[in-house]
Design brief:
This protein is 35% helix and 18% strand. By secondary structure, it is of the alpha/beta class. Strand 1 and strand 2 form a beta hairpin.
Length: 381
């Protein structure tokens, strides 16, 4: 058997990681400013994280959700405290797409309505409902096409209000910061107006914080910069620093009924141990504050570099474009010539999604190598 050939792969295999660095078998050191799609939140192989998983797997790695699991309760208490949503309820699952699927189902159960309103350039996952709410027809199979999802432009409150006024929508879903589209933010004014329109029309508001949450923006969730409180929040990516884990945070007004949601692996013992360790490290090492400070420094310094244009984002969720380069060309140059991992979005955008523990010294190393990379012989865009 061979692997199903759906990924474009770089000819590099990291075999070890530490902090914001990964290493190949020959010991070559790569600065990791992408964290495997924003998944590495507290750094590779953090000793507290390694200890927590090692101890837990030595005791009990898994049992189903048919028995008590006090680790879930510990995680819920810790997450509620650090996020500011201690009055919300927690449903645990395995991936961002699964979190959004459950959010849609929950909204539809609660309102009795069938439809979801999503926004232009959105990305919410690759499973059936999540990909239907993703604004990319290229990854949507005919099976996933449904009349139950409509799109309006991001930050267009008039179009949004018009759609919601029909009373057809169980929920509107918006990313705290759009990641896959290239780091595009809903404005605070738009999020406040969207929240008001949802309340007025009996529509639930879902904030997809799968990439933008967990401290990445310099607040626990990116929408908290706008001062709103959505009905449902979904998160994954950095929640467990690489162990598959995701969560749905649910407002107290939304009732739970036995059997309405379920999962085999969600909230298992190892996932909870990993997620608790992440929150412990984030709190103890003040990683949200670090993301805010180092991110602000990086954004300010990038904007000073000639040829760098349209630097976007908050905290350690940054997108930018560079004159004379496509995103793919620049990422390859940074990777192969300067040993730095970055990410892409679209034809021209380079994304930075490093661990929240990235130091100023590591940011300076990136800036130094980045300037060298773009001052060489750029390809034609």
């Amino acid at each position: 058997m061979k692997l199903f050939d759906v990924y474009s792969l770089y000819d590099i295999e990291p075999v070890k990681g530490k902090g914001s660095h990964v290493f190949t078998a020959d010991g070559t050191d790569y600065l990791d400013l992408y964290g495997g799609h924003a998944v590495i939140s507290i750094g590779h192989a953090h000793p507290k994280y390694v200890k927590a998983l090692s101890e837990q797997v030595g005791n009990l790695g898994f049992y189903s959700n048919s028995v008590q699991n006090s680790l879930q309760e510990r995680l819920a208490e810790k997450l509620g405290k650090l996020s500011g949503y201690d009055d919300y309820a927690l449903f645990l699952c395995n991936s961002g797409a699964e979190a959004n699927e459950n959010a849609f189902k929950l909204a539809s159960f609660t309102t009795g309505r069938p439809k979801i309103l999503a926004f232009g350039k959105a990305f919410h996952g690759r499973t059936s409902g999540a990909v239907a709410a993703t604004d990319n027809p290229a990854i949507r199979a005919p099976f996933n096409v449904t009349p139950n999802v409509d799109f309006v432009p991001l930050n267009d409150i008039e179009a949004t209000a018009k759609a919601l006024s029909t009373g057809e929508y169980a929920a509107a879903i918006v990313e705290g910061i759009q990641g896959v589209s290239g780091i595009h933010e809903p404005t605070p004014e738009f999020l406040k107006a969207l929240s008001e329109e949802c309340k007025k029309n009996g529509t639930l508001l879902i904030l997809d914080e799968i990439q933008s949450g967990y401290g990445r923006s310099g607040r626990f969730f990116a929408h908290q910069h706008s001062g709103i409180r959505p009905d449902i929040i979904t998160c994954a990516k950095g929640i467990a620093n690489g162990f598959p884990c995701a969560a749905v945070l649910i407002a107290p007004e939304i009732p739970a009924k036995k059997g309405m949601l379920g999962t085999t692996f969600g909230g298992n013992h190892l996932a909870c141990a990993a997620a608790i360790a992440v929150l412990d490290v984030m709190e103890e090492e003040k990683l949200i504050e670090n993301a805010a400070n180092v991110g602000e420094y990086l954004i300010d310094e990038l904007r000073k570099i000639p040829g760098v244009k349209d630097v976007r984002g908050r905290g350690l969720m940054i997108g930018m474009e560079v004159e004379g380069f496509t995103g793919s060309e620049l990422r390859k140059k940074l990777l192969f010539d300067h040993h730095i991992f970055t990410g892409g979005a679209g034809q021209y955008t380079v994304r930075l999604l490093p661990a929240l523990s990235l130091s100023k010294e590591e940011a300076d190393l990136f800036l130094s190598e980045f300037k060298k990379a773009i001052s060489g012989n750029p390809a034609e865009a």
